[in-house]
Specification:
This protein is mainly alpha-helical. The chain has one domain. About 65% of the residues lie in helices and about 5% in strands. It has a 3-stranded antiparallel β-sheet. The longest helix has about 35 residues. It is globular and about 60 Å long.
Length: about 220
Amino acid sequence: MSKRLSKTAVQQKFGRNASLAPNPNAEEPTIAKPTARVAAIIYDGMLILALLFLVGTVLTVIGTLLTMETGTQSQEARSLPTWYQNVIMTPSFILTLVGFYGLFWRRGGQTLGMQTWRLKTVNNSGHLLNWGQSFKRILAACLMPLIFGVIGGLIGGSRAVILTSAFLGLIFNYVFCLFNRRGLAVQDMLSNTITLKMPKAENEGLWRVIRNRKKSK
């Protein structure tokens, strides 16, 4: 697969007049700006936090019933076993994150936050991502936060420092767009995918895509 999304591929997928010129005023697909990407993440972040909270609550109840004796006094409260947190809860949170983005990207290339800002993620051929490409993109997006988090742990060691460093790594993914000549983010380059800003006329929206697919079956 080519490392760059060719102009021909974009024209075939989104229309013959489409291009990747970073011109926000043109009524054609363009490479998404970092500000729009971050805004979409903030929108999606609220929904993701709610999902993670729900998953965490359910797993905590199940873990408590299966692994601990419950008391009636506050001083009898105990934490879930470390093995349960690492083997059950952490993978479940990761699967929730992968499932959230994977389902939306495979259906219409847009999460709810991306739809608000008319963003669409496709592969370098201009097609919707499959599960493998979605997972690769998520891993690529987590790489810099992981590296920054490790550095923060080596420097400070506290949980607050590690989380702050990881957040800076996330921001770095999009600051990188400003220095890349094509405006690509770190995860775009590492996963051979791209996020486009769609024109109003061609932005179908997620639910419309799903309805059209159901009608075509």
